[in-house]
Design a protein that fits this description.
Elements (H helix, E strand, L loop, with lengths): L1 H25 L9 E5 L10 E6 L4 E4 L8 E5 L7 E3 L6 E4 L2 E8 L10 E4 L6 E3 L6 E6 L9 E5 L2 E14 L11 H11 L5 H35 L4 H31 L1
Parallel strand pairs: 1-5
Antiparallel strand pairs: 1-6, 2-3, 2-4, 4-6, 7-12, 8-9, 8-10, 10-12, 11-12
Helix pairs in contact: 1-3, 1-4, 3-4
Length: about 270
Amino acid sequence: MKATEKVQKMLLFCCQFLLVFLPLIAVPASAKADNVIAGFTSTQTIQPGLIVALDDPKAKTVKAATANSLNSMYGVAVDPSDAPITLVGNNTQVFVATTGTYQVLVSVENGAIKTGDYISMSSVDGIGARATVSQSVVLGRAASAFNGAANVVTSHNNKAIGRIYVNLSVQKNPLSSADPTLPSFLRKVANGLANKSVPVIRVYTALMIFLISILAALTILWSGVRSALISLGRNPLSKKTIFSGMYKTVFTGVGVFIIGLAGVYLLLKV
């Protein structure tokens, strides 16, 4: 049983190490981002709520984003009084937010929008819509709903347009099937557990931790039960002591597996 105890101690130390340091390495850099609105210029008339794209980064100019150039999507034009910090430059005409929760003009052309839906572009420049699997980039997730029946601002091609609050976070579309670096079932499971888009590196790291926890648990269980059976064959009179040690080994294996699952959850969720 000595070898088994050494293995148990080593695996428990590794799991404790993961629980201590995973929250530190898992905190996304965006969590430190401030709610800052930056000033830009534009050759177009950009009203608050329109989704914008960078037109010329050096000249700090923006334009209404289009469905054909999702990769240039940058943020949403807002009222500068809506943020605690506003960066104003010379000749500023448009104030743009890239993080935080702000009102966005959206259309129901891809269906009614529910809270939690990913928002991307509609066919109308500057107007958002519920994201589809064919769109590679999203603006963020809806923080309020819009069904096209209430709070309608205007319409285009008989499709209602209104305003909803969106949690801004321009990123790859978690619904997209165009990302070849991650199998679709892994992406769905990871995004479902985290309730957000999870970077590929985190998904694979979580998968590695999950597999290691299973291997560690099975190793502990196999070695503990095997050692108990061998000891029982050599000394049947110590049956009670041997089975007591085996039960402890089983609980240790299950504990290691649970700790591994906790590590996976923290890595995906934080």
